Structures are given as C-alpha cells and as structure tokens.
Amino acid sequence: MRKFAVALALTASACSYQSPTQPAASAAATATNEPFSLTLGSSVGSGTTADHATITAKVQGPTGQPLGGVVVTFSTTVGALNPEQAATDSNGIGSTTLVASTAATVTAKAGTLSARTGVGTQPAAQPPPTPTPTPGPGPNPGAPTGPLTVTLTAADVIVGSTTILNVSIKDGVPPFQVTWTFGDGASFTGSSSSSAHVYAAVGAYPASVNVTDSAGRTASANATVNVLAAPPPPAPPAPPPATPSYTVTLSASPTTVVAGGTATLTAAVNAQNGAPTPTSF
After folding, report:
1. The pLDDT of residue 201
2. Is 0.90 topped by the overall pTM?
3. Residue 142 CB: number of other CB atoms within 10 A?
4. pLDDT tens, 167-188?
5. Which CATH fold topology does 149-228 show?
6. Cα–chain-centroid distance for residue 25?
7. pLDDT at 9
8. CA distance 203 to 211
C-alpha cells in the first residue's frame, strides 16, 4: 500500500509588468508560460519497499494548464533523492525517488515557487528467508527393482502319490495371490509359494501358476508334470536252502514177544537234502 501526500504552492502575485515597448499580447503570453502553481505529492511503498517513496511535482500556469519542460529541483532532510532535478513532462509532472529509513521532509522548487511535503518512509521489512527445499522422497526399500518374474518347478510322480509344485518369485511386492492350475481340471488359489496335488491317472499334465503381487503386477509360468504308472510289486524272496538231515525208521520182528523171548529190530536210515550216506549207527 502507498500513502499519498500533496503540497501546493502559488505565485505571490499574478500581476506582471509590461514594458511600454512590449506589445500587450507578448506580455500576456510570457505570463501564461510562467509557473503559477506547484503541487507536490508523495507515494510511499510498504513491506520490503517501505523505505522508498515516489515524489511528484506538478507545475501549472495561471490558467491551470500543465507546463512542460520546467526544471524542478528536489531536496530532502534525510535520505537520498534520485534524481535531484527533473524536467516536467507534457502533463507538467516531474518526479524523483526518495530512499530513507525514517520520515523525511522533501522540498521542491520550480522557478520562484517552492513547496514541501512530509514523507512517511520507514525501515524496509526484511524479505522472508528462502525456505529450505524439502528433500524429495528417497527410494522405497520395498519397491521392486525389476519386472515381476516367476518360475514353476515340478517333479515326476507316481500315480496316486502326492506331488509338490513350487514357484520362485523374483522382484515381487508381497503379499502375493497365487493361482495354481494342475492340468487335470483342478485349480487352487492361495498365497503360498508351494502347493500339493494328487493325480489320479497316468499322463503328462500341463501345470501352470499365475502370481499377482501387491503392486498389481502379474506373471505366469508353466511346467509339465509326468505322472508315472506304479511299478509291479517285488517278487517274494527265495526260500532258504534246505538243511541236510536224516530220517530213521525202526521196526521190530516179531512185534510181540513173551517175556524171555527174542525179537529182531531193524533200523532204516534215509538221507535228505544232500546229507551224506551214514557209515555207522
């Protein structure tokens, strides 16, 4: 905001002397071009320009017309003026700039006229300090450094047995949504990086996995699961080799005798499982 002040000076007399040899019209023209009034104004800055003021002097003739080309001389009680002299323009205005840290009184002179005005300059406000720029966000430790990639691995399995499928996830942002397709019409969605499955028939099954991370990125991988027939049961073990042995058959003749009688006993020896022939009984 600027404050504006005005001071006015008039000639002491509007009368002029006319020489007997000077035509009346010429004397009237001279009086018309002489400064008759001097008006002084000021406009003071604010904030960081509170110590600056623009001083304007308006010079007019006796009929109120602006007078151009009139030299106005400025002076001040404090501070500095630039310029100290200024010629009025076609509007009769000449101006200067005052720089002062306290209130000042400025005087303007144009010909025999003079005017003064008080100017309320004061110390300029210090500009606000330049704010320290806020550093931008640093790299997010959890942010992915590359594209999401997945790898699916699966081993051959015997039909009816449980197989484990594993997915390796690289440059993903957890948690993950993992959808398994086993190739036999079955599927499963979870968050684990492994899944178990049992195939009911022999064959080669095109298994696949689709992974979506928390950043919304997706990646897929495929693998073939070979389901093999169960091997035949093992043959029973061979019996251990037979141990050589003997069988002995004893007979009596007669089979019945009276007391004091005589009977003949006969022993029959049979060698078995490669036993050698006995040489004695």
Report:
1. 95
2. no
3. 9
4. 999 988 999 999 999 999 999 9
5. Immunoglobulin-like (2.60.40)
6. 85
7. 52
8. 26
Give, as one character, the DSSP assignment of residue 202: -
**What does the DSSP assignment read for 138-176?**
---TTS-SS--EEEEEE--EETTSEEEEEEEEES--SS-
Task: With residue 26 as reference, give the H or E element that holds it.
Answer: helix 24-33
- Per-residue pLDDT at 67: 93
- Length of the chain equals 281
Exposure of 259 by Cβ count < 10 A (0-12 exposed, 13-18 middle, 19+ buried)? Answer: exposed
Q: Residues 156, 164: contact at Cβ < 8 Å?
A: no
* Weakly modelled stretches of the chain, pLDDT under 50: 1-4, 6, 10-30
Which residues does 15 contact at the CB level (< 8 Å), separation at least 6? none
Token pair 């499963």 is found at 188
* pLDDT at 91 (0 to 100): 94
Class of domain 3-14+30-119: mainly beta
Helices (H), strands (E): how many in the chain?
Answer: 1, 19
- How much is the pLDDT for 17? 31
Domain(s) labelled CATH 2.60.40.10 in the chain stretch across 3-14+30-119, 149-228
Q: Return the pLDDT at 259.
A: 80
The phi-psi region of residue 27 (left if phi > 0; otherwise alpha if psi is between -120 and 50; otherwise beta) is alpha
Residues pairing with 194 in the sheet: 166
